[in-house]
Predict the structure of Pimeloyl-ACP methyl ester carboxylesterase.
Amino acid sequence: MIEMPSLQFAQVNGIRMGYYEAGPKTDAPPLVLCHGWPEMAFSWRHQLKALSEAGIRVIAPDQRGYGATDRPEPVEAYDMEHLTGDLVGLLDHLKIDKAIFVGHDWGGFIVWQMPLRHIDRVAGVVGVNTPHWDRAPADPIALMRQRFGDHMYIVQFQDPGREPDRIFGSRVEQTFDAFMRKPAPRPADAPAEEPIAGVGASARLNLAFPQMIANYDARHDPRTPILSPEEKKVFVDTFTKTGFTGGINWYRNFTRNWERSAGLDHTVRVPSLMIMAENDAVLPPSAADGMEKFIPDLEKYLVRDSGHWTQQEKPEEVSAKLIEWRRKRFG
């Protein structure tokens, strides 16, 4: 039985946003849980339950382009100004002064930007798998193309013809069957990960995600699924309805975000926690090396034996760490 709080709506930053809320309204600062791609607030179902039962107020939005939230047409409507502005608008709607922002995958990029752009609304930040870096020395898309070639999925996502959107959108069940699994065991002699802008080198062969999905057959996949059939149905039904373009548009703003962040001080000046997953091929723990340089008040925590979907693969451990850190730092 899947437990989720009831869906609510807020007019924020020019869009209607769907969100879920649990826990006592009196608790401050609350946690705002920000999902990645291709996910939605439902990815935090375990944390919504565990944290609220621990007496912590917790809010999980379907972010711009996803789930129950609006999907504006223009690509630049998904840039970092809009994505962080949506979260400020959600706090305004809920009459919340400051929150702790928790982000996984793409949600991680956004929550690390919150204290750079809206410091007066941020009590703390938690990155799940996604580290915080300084601004890239050059256009990130150019760097990824140079390093990984034209088939690397983020480079492919720049395609104005939107071919990746069509591939995922016409194979929704295949997409979640393929993505939402525990990683295959890594051989003991496998080389260490070598991160660039969030992409581990050993994942190189599998980075052509659209083609991987187009050719995928679950019958030949030995990896363990992390979703029950009932949970997978929630993802499949939602993305069948919304398509994938809203989320992919976040990737289409990599260059714009890089250009527009030129004058931004990248130091994070709030209490921060970095939760890393031992076996995440795309965002390996080594990607978080050196974060201390930009985050003076940082704690790191490693979740062993977890792949990329950490809060769904190891829900009890992630929830327990969030509760422990929140109590230690904020009472």
In short: Confidence is low (pLDDT under 50) at residues 193-205. The first strand starts at residue 7 and ends at 12. The chain has one domain: 7-330. The two ends are 32 Å apart (CA to CA).
